[in-house]
Design brief:
Pfam families: polyprenyl_synt (PF00348)
Shape: flat
Cofactor: Mg(2+)
Keywords: Magnesium, Metal-binding, Transferase
Family: Belongs to the FPP/GGPP synthase family.
Largest sheet: 2 strands, antiparallel
CATH topology: Farnesyl Diphosphate Synthase
Number of domains: 1
Number of strands: 2
Protein name: Polyprenyl synthetase family protein
Length: 343
């Protein structure tokens, strides 16, 4: 950010908010993607491997993630992120305070789109710098391939997510659970866990067998990670999640949790979900009604079982993976961290 600030502000001091707001979005978060990238690298690297390539790759993932969150909040009309105003709200607040012409909201959304685009570019520049420092040229090429695939898949997954919020009415009920699971795989599981692991390992020159083990470990763990996030999106404490409780209900997320509630709940539960889910003006009492109906359907217990099954599969793969023992231990600890986050 320090190196890019001089480029941006040399164009005009009016661009200072782009840097300030970028810093704000990069200063928080749990750094899960960076951690998985680092431990993927550590799981296969030689003891004397230079650290700078993986630091650059992990940082590129964090900046990419920040950009994705900026765009995601625009898509979902989310007012907050990590307990603070989302990027488009920061910009529309700037517009309002400055007394400029036009609509605050329109300015905020347009500016945040550009901020996200800017950070996407910075992420790619940072990855390029990291790959140039890698000692294994073939591994660097593989890391770039994995990063490119991740960008395509997560964008596709994001489209599938917004599609499901609208297209579910035309789909057979029997297909909704599978469609919700597909969103999990591409919007989150591969992007949040599998890809960072493989990018880090590829950078260190991992063998095909090692990359295969990390994929087999990362996919079920990523699914469990997102299933936990879906539960938090409905029942989570705002102080823990940084988002208002029930935010996914207002946004109309057609998650595995919701699909299971519709499949196993009463007719009244299904009607309640279909009538209220996706209403941005849900009252607190309506959110409580939805939460109670979802809980009564048994969907939460079923999701908890899915989380446990996926974690068990990830641990099974990790136990016999051809990876360094210290990294295996840390990846095991991370497995607990990303799937046992509290309400």
């Amino acid at each position: 950010m320090a190196s890019r600030e001089s480029i941006v502000t040399s164009i005009s001091p009016d661009l200072t908010p782009l840097v300030e707001f970028s810093r704000q979005f990069l200063s928080g978060g749990k750094r899960f993607r960076a951690l998985f990238c680092y431990w993927g690298w550590r799981s296969v690297c030689a003891p004397d491997s230079p650290l700078s390539p993986v630091v650059g790759a992990a940082s590129a993932l964090e900046i990419f993630h920040a950009a994705a969150l900026v765009h995601d909040d625009i898509i979902d009309n989310s007012d907050t992120r990590r307990g603070a105003p989302s990027a488009h709200r920061l910009f529309d607040g700037l517009h309002a305070r400055s007394g400029w012409a036009g609509d605050d909201t329109e300015f905020g959304r347009a500016s945040a789109i550009l901020l996200g685009d800017l950070m996407l570019g910075w992420s790619d520049e940072l990855l390029d710098d990291a790959l140039l420092e890698a000692t294994d040229a073939a591994g660097a090429r593989q890391a770039r391939i994995e990063f490119n695939r991740m960008r395509t898949e997560v964008t596709a997954g994001q489209y599938l997510d917004i599609l499901e919020e609208r297209a579910w009415v035309t789909q057979p009920d029997s297909e909704l659970l599978d469609r919700a699971h597909r969103v999990i795989v591409y919007k989150s599981a591969k992007y949040s866990v599998l890809a960072p692991l493989v990018i880090g390992a590829a950078l260190a020159g991992a063998t095909a067998e090692q990359l295969g083990s990390l994929r087999e470990f990362g996919l079920p763990l990523g699914i469990a990670f997102q299933l936990r996030d879906d539960v938090l999106g409905v029942f989570g404490d705002a102080a823990v999640t940084g988002k208002p409780s029930g935010d996914d209900l207002r946004e109309g997320k057609r998650t595995v949790l919701i699909a299971l509630a519709r499949d196993h709940g009463s007719a009244e539960t299904r009607t309640l979900i279909d009538e209220l889910l996706g209403n941005p003006d849900l009252t607190e009492s309506q959110i409580v009604r939805l939460q109670s109906a979802i809980q009564a359907s048994g969907a939460v217990d079923r999701v908890e079982t899915l989380i446990a099954d996926n974690v068990a599969e990830a641990r099974r793969v990790l136990a016999s993976a051809p990876l360094h023992a210290d990294a295996v231990a840390e990846l095991g600890a991370l497995t607990d961290t990303v799937t046992r986050r509290s309400f």
